[in-house]
From TrEMBL:
Residues covered by the 2Fe-2S ferredoxin-type domain: 1-76
Name of this chain's protein: (2Fe-2S)-binding protein
One Pfam family named in its UniProt record: Fer2
CDD domains: fer2
Superkingdom per UniProt: Bacteria
A molecular function (GO) term: oxidoreductase activity
Matching PANTHER family: BLR6218 PROTEIN, OXIDOREDUCTASE WITH IRON-SULFUR SUBUNIT
Record bears the keyword Acyltransferase: no
This protein's UniProt keywords: 2Fe-2S, Iron, Iron-sulfur, Metal-binding, Oxidoreductase
InterPro entries: 2Fe-2S-bd, 2Fe-2S-bd_dom_sf, 2Fe-2S_ferredoxin-like_sf, 2Fe-2S_ferredoxin-type, 2Fe2S_fd_BS, Beta-grasp_dom_sf, Diverse_Oxidoreductases
Length: 149
């Protein structure tokens, strides 16, 4: 079993079947950007992009990603240049505690892959499943709008 992780083909070890994509990323590949929050697909802290779609990795079986393309927050920057969403996050100092922010960023990137110029309603709908206990929602919306400028 293999998949593409941040542009590089990787094997899914047979003994990881039955585990989740979140822990495959964190514990096997050492990519700890995606976080464990609720573990049941409702908080968004574990969001990565699978075949272009924002995906809750905590409820995605590792074996189900065979043949898929997975992008985690660690794979967004290219040649040392931040993705426009990451740069906007930095420019507007979006994070507070930061725990949910990799998932927020990945949902924002997936949104912008679908809508090049999203309305506030598009942003609110796309980001609805990403919770932030610090309440950074206003800055998140502003950063998404900045990323498309
Ligand atoms: Fe996956 Fe909350 S940890 S949605």
């Amino acid at each position: 079993m293999a998949f593409v992780l941040n542009g590089k083909t990787q094997a899914i070890p047979a003994d990881w079947a039955g585990e989740t994509l979140l822990f495959l990323l964190r514990d096997h590949f050492g990519l700890v950007g995606a976080k464990y929050g609720c573990g049941v697909g409702v908080c968004g802290a574990c969001t990565v992009i699978v075949d272009g779609v924002a995906t809750r990795s905590c409820i995605t079986p590792a074996e189900s990603i065979e043949g898929s393309e997975v992008r985690s927050v660690e794979g967004l920057a290219t040649d040392g240049v931040l993705h426009p969403v990451q740069q906007a996050w930095l420019d507007l100092a979006v994070p507070q505690c930061g725990y949910c922010q990799p998932g927020q960023i990945m949902s924002a990137v997936a949104l912008l892959n679908e809508f090049s110029s999203p309305s506030d309603a598009d942003i609110d709908a796309a980001m609805d499943g990403n919770l932030c206990r610090c309440g950074t929602y206003g800055r998140i919306r502003a950063a998404i709008q900045r990323a498309v400028e």
